[in-house]
Amino acid sequence: MMLSIDATMPERGLDISLRVERGETVAILGPNGAGKSTVLGILAGLVRPESGHAHLAGRTLFDLGAPGPARPAPCWVPPHARGVALLPQEALLFPHLTAASNVAFGPRSAGAGRRESHAQALHWLREVDAVELAGRRPTELSGGQAQRVAVARALAAQPQLLLLDEPLSALDVAAAPLVRRMLRRVLANQTVLLVTHDVLDALTLADRVVVMHDGRIIEEGPTRDVLERPRTRFTADLAALNLVTGTRTHVGVMTDAGASVILPLATDTPLGTRVGVAVRPANVEVSLLEPRGLNLTVFPALVRDLEPRGDVVRVRTDALFADLTPRAIADLDLEPGTRAYFSFDSVDAVTYPL
Ligand code: ADP
Ligand code: MG
Q: Domain named ABC transporter: which ranges (predicted)?
């Protein structure tokens, strides 16, 4: 075990327990206010929880004991002595230093000489495809370039644990893919906790994900398992999947709301078990007349709202949501309050035990 942390912080509603293996990248997913940054702050030594302990590579980062009055002498290792590097949401570079001097800061602090730390800075800048930026100051860097330099600076300190807080969220859509590809390469050899609310970051960068909600971990597992077979409505929303839960019957699933979902018979979920059915919103059809088909599951519903999302419009109801083209929206004359039939074919449904 490379990293373990157990911590509570009642004033932020936080109570978590998390383990990370050496070389693993774990994504922490969750909405604003879930407690993601707080977890990183606690590990970096910037935020002090009320109780708990954390260990990194056999060393104690902090040990504040169990909640309650009987406390051992608390142990709290200061940030610079933890072997932990935190990359905050906005790249924080020293404005008066060049990119190379920013990156050299870690090796310098660790006692390397000027020449040696400069050589290391160039090495890490090369790793993030930014060696040509070595002589620039932060004001001469774009957002994506500054983020590259910030990643190089974090890596140059050779941390045993790298903490990334939404590293791509401050970048414009054009810059994000390149930085994501760079991260995918350089994170492969590191032990990383990556906070994100973007499922694409998790899918491309993380071996495992934990989903946080209200200060707690509500789901965790290998990235694809969690994001393709969500167990909670909450994770399904993050993964942009429809999730229907219910009990397996001989024709499909009886939902908790009493509706029937049609599924293929061949399945590994025994009759009577609790199952989830996940359906992509692009696979949900919307029609004004009731559609018929042996393998169709149909939910009549009122359109609650229409949300433009790039090329498609997400049509939400209290049951399913569907992604339609603006053209289809116009053809169906959909607007909030329209009554329509939302349907999907059993071949487009993924069923799994909960
Ligand atoms: P996330 O990173 O998932 O958006 P945070 O860890 O920033 O969530 O916040 C978790 C909770 O802690 C929220 O309720 C937030 O309001 C609170 N919180 C965050 N930062 C502070 C702070 N500096 N002081 C007090 N409360 C905070
Ligand atoms: Mg945050």
A: 2-239
Tell me, yes or no, whether 42 and 176 share the same domain: yes
Output phi, psi for 298, to 5 deg.
-125, 125
- The answer as to whether 72 is a domain residue is yes
273 and 222, same structural domain?
no
**Beta carbon of 229 within 6 Å of any ligand 1 atom:** no
Assign 70 a pLDDT band (cuts: 50, 70, 90).
Answer: low
Q: Please give the span between the terminal C-alpha atoms of the chain, in angstroms, as a whole number.
A: 28
- Give residue 89 CA to ligand 2 midpoint distance, Å: 8
161 in a structural domain: yes
Nearest-ligand number for the alpha carbon of 30: 1
Do residues 12 and 160 share a domain? yes
Q: Which H helix or E strand runs over 336?
A: none
pLDDT at residue 94 in the model: 93
CB of 230 shorter than 6 A to ligand 1: no
Residue range of the domain that includes 33: 3-229
Q: Please state, rounded to an integer, the average pLDDT across all residues of the chain.
A: 92
Of 34-48, 190-204, 254-268, give the range with the top mean pLDDT: 34-48
Reply yes or no on whether the pLDDT at 268 is more than 80. Answer: no
Distance 8 CA to ligand 1 centre (A): 13
| Residue 346 sits in the same domain as residue 225 | no
- List residues bridging with 6 in a β-sheet: 17, 53
Does residue 235 fall inside a structural domain?
A: no
Output the CA–CA distances (angstroms, integers) from residue 7 to 40, 53, 80, 216, 306, in the order listed.
Answer: 12, 6, 20, 11, 40
Q: Which tokens is 58 given?
A: 């056999």
- Residues 332, 207 share a domain: no
Summarize pLDDT for 76-101 with one digit per residue, the tens.
Answer: 999 999 999 999 877 789 999 999 99
Q: What is the pTM of this model?
A: 0.88
User: Which residue among 38, 47, 163, 218 is best mutated to probe the pocket of ligand 1, counting the most ligand atoms within 8 A of its Cβ?
Assistant: 38
